[in-house]
Amino acid sequence: MESVSCVNVPQVAAAICPYIHYVHARSKQKGASALLSLTRSMIKQEVPLQQIVVNDRVDVALLTSAGAVQLPANGLSVVDAKSLLSEGTRCGVSVHSLEEVQTAEQAGADYVLFGHVYETHCKAGLVPRGIAQLERICRLSDIPVIALGGIQPHHVPELYHAGASGIAVMSGIWEAKSPVAAAMEYRRMVDLVVHDL
Question: Is 116 a catalytic residue?
Answer without folding.
Answer: yes
